[in-house]
Amino acid sequence: MTATGTDRPLTPAGRRVLDTASRLFYQRGINTVGMELIAEQAGVTKKTVYDRFGSKDALVAAYLAERDRRWRAWVGEQTAAAGGPRERALAVFDALESWMEGLEPRGCAMVNACVELTDPDHPGLRVAREQKRWTRELFRGLAAEAGAADPDEAADTLLVLHEGAVIAYQTAGVRTAVRTARRAAGDLLSR
In this predicted model, what pLDDT tens digit does every residue of 36-72 receive, in sequence order? Predict the structure, then answer.
């Protein structure tokens, strides 16, 4: 992991800052966590936080980018282990279900960031939106490989099922939401 905006690897203090910020941003929300709290819990000075990341916005973007890298790697592992394109598309839902098993009921960090960050130019929003675009394109490619008549429409539907499952799990406590979405995705891909 490199510090935002540079090619320098994170120092041990920078790693502690990012790990602490990631935990706090996810558990408490981005807007409620200040740099003082991050510095205190990371065992560094506020100056160190700014030296490593430059700003809270850059730290938020680094938190989301790291989470996005982990998510993409997780999905990649799950889809690579699946059979054909239909099975790989459904494996995205399997990856989501197993990813969410270990989460607190705070749900998707990217969705949470989109709700919290009101500046349309915030670097964290760019990371969150890019993850959702990537997920749609993943579904589009898999739908095309599976022979969908309209891969764009299939991708939109699969993304809506995927994101809807996340929201139903997070806000309504529907613990079977991903399995329900996966069944609907399977029906769609079987047509």
Answer: 999 999 999 999 999 999 999 999 999 999 999 999 9
pTM: 0.91
In this model, does residue 105 exceed pLDDT 90? no
Q: Token pair of 119, please?
A: 């500046």
| Partners of 121 in beta bridges | none
Beta bridge partners of 110: none
What is the torsional sign of CA 79, 85, 86, 89? Answer: positive
CA atoms within 13 A on the CB side of 154: 26
The CA angle 170-27-98, to the nearest 5 degrees, is: 50
| CATH code: domain of residue 36 | 1.10.10.60
Residue 42 sits in which domain range?
A: 12-54
In the chain, the amino acid numbered 170 is Q
Same structural domain for residues 89 and 140? yes
* Strand ranges (E), the chain: none
Q: 68 and 48: one domain?
A: no
* Percent of the chain whose pLDDT exceeds 70: 94
